[in-house]
Every structure is written in structure tokens, then in C-alpha cells.
Write a structure and sequence with these properties.
By secondary structure, this protein is mainly alpha-helical. Helices cover 81% and strands 0% of the residues.
């Protein structure tokens, strides 16, 4: 309750300062428009269904890209966690690629696929794959040897050992990896849509910027940030806390 009150006071102060500063023309409205004009632009965007089409298009790309990245990342992570040779070779490459910003892949994606849907989804996949792979690898590596030895003494080996002991013990890392993969994929998607032909939130952001519509630019930025916060706090954080509690990792 106290946290909610603090947040309300904090955001109310920001909103008040923003609106009052704009009305007093402390900054130029064309550079940083007032909150009321941003709100009007958002209402207009939803009324003419432009932002609705953008949201649908972005979420479709995200669903495809994130699903593929989670599958590929999990498989790579399992390989790295179970094979020392793969970890020492491919693992070093994955670690290096993880540090490369998603937007850097855009020129390659455009050359390979053209300026189309495939290029955007490709960048989105890369955004989530590497972080998922590294978390899956860490989860497998951190499984207690006592669990493995206890299972082996009871006859568990090979695939049976992995499915019954190793993978279930890695679930907290899988959840954390999924949460981070979502965040990285979401950012990669917005970067990819900046150069797309639309529709999409990133495309509208660039389009509005080209025509000097800063009210729409800031409005879309608020939508992007709000979606990220809502999905993270109300979906992934709750899943993560539930898993941590179930696995007895809560202090």
C-alpha cells in the first residue's frame, strides 16, 4: 500500500511539472509537447484505429519472434549446459553475440530478407535467443550434484535423469531467462520496426518523427514503456515469485 502511494505521488508530481512547464512555455512545445496534447494525440490514434492496428501488428511479430527465440535459446542452453566442448566453443560465441545490440543486426537482416516482415522477426528472435540460452545454461550448470547423485543411485540416467531432475531443478533460471528474453525481444522488435514498412509501433514512431509530430512520438514511447512495465510486473514477476516460492528459494 505504501509503495502504491509513493508511486502515485511521484508520478503525479512528474505529470504536474510536465503540464505546468509546457503551459508556462519553459520549453518549446514543438520539441517537448504538453501532456494534454500527447493525450489528445493518443485518443486520436485510437479513434482512427491507427494505434490499434499498430499494436496488433507488433504483438503478432512479438509472439512469433519470442516463441521461436525461447525454443532455440532453450535448446542451445541445454547443449551448452550438457556439453563441455560446446560450452567452451559455441558458448564463447553466444556470450559475445549477447553483447551486440539488436539494432546492429538490422543491416544484415535487410540484406538477407529484404525490408519486410521476416527481417523484423529475425531481429526479434535474435533479441531473445542469446539471453535465454545463457540462462538455460546457467540453470543446468547450477543443479546441485547431490540431486544428480541421488537420482543416479535410484537408477535414473540419460534422458530420464534430465527430464526428472536436471530440467525441473533449472526451472527458476528458465523463468528468469524467459522474462529477460521477453524484454530483449520487445526492444529488438521496436528497433526493427523503426525501419519497417508498417504497421507497428516502431514504424509509427519513426513516421511521426519524420513529420515533426512529437506529441505522437512521446505518446508511442509511453505506450511502449507501459506495455513493457505491465507485462513484466503483472505476468513475469508474478510467475517468477511463484516459482521461487515453490522451489524454496525465498529467503
Amino acid at each position: 500500500m505504501q509503495t502504491a502511494i509513493k508511486r502515485i505521488i511521484f508520478f503525479s508530481a512528474i505529470i504536474a511539472f510536465w503540464e505546468i512547464g509546457s503551459r508556462l512555455e519553459i520549453w518549446h512545445p514543438l520539441i517537448f509537447p504538453s501532456l494534454s496534447s500527447v493525450f489528445s494525440a493518443l485518443v486520436e490514434g485510437f479513434q482512427d484505429k491507427t494505434l490499434i492496428y499498430d499494436l496488433i501488428a507488433s504483438f503478432k511479430r512479438l509472439a512469433v519472434g519470442l516463441a521461436i527465440s525461447l525454443v532455440i535459446g532453450t535448446l542451445i542452453g541445454i547443449l551448452l549446459g550438457k556439453s563441455k566442448t560446446a560450452d567452451e566453443t559455441l558458448g564463447a560465441v553466444i556470450l559475445a553475440l549477447q553483447s551486440v545490440p539488436s539494432i546492429v543486426w538490422l543491416p544484415i537482416a535487410i540484406m538477407w530478407f529484404g525490408l519486410n516482415e521476416k527481417a523484423v522477426i529475425f531481429v526479434t528472435i535474435l533479441g531473445g535467443t542469446f539471453v535465454m540460452a545463457l540462462n538455460m545454461r546457467t540453470g543446468i550448470k547450477n543443479v546441485s550434484p547431490l540431486y544428480i547423485k541421488a537420482a543416479q543411485t535410484m537408477g535414473a540416467n540419460g534422458i530420464d535423469l534430465f527430464t526428472r531432475v536436471i530440467f525441473p531443478a533449472s526451472i527458476p533460471y528458465v523463468v528468469t531467462g524467459s522474462r529477460l528474453a521477453w524484454a530483449f525481444a520487445w526492444r529488438a522488435l521496436m528497433a526493427g520496426e523503426l525501419l519497417s514498412t508498417g504497421p507497428g509501433l516502431g514504424y509509427t514512431l519513426r513516421y511521426a518523427s519524420d513529420f515533426g509530430r512529437m506529441d505522437i512520438v512521446i505518446g508511442v514511447m509511453i505506450i511502449i514503456g507501459a506495455i513493457g512495465m505491465i507485462v513484466d510486473q503483472f505476468i513475469f514477476q508474478r510467475i517468477e515469485k511463484s516459482v521461487i516460492k515453490k522451489w524454496g528459494l525465498e529467503s
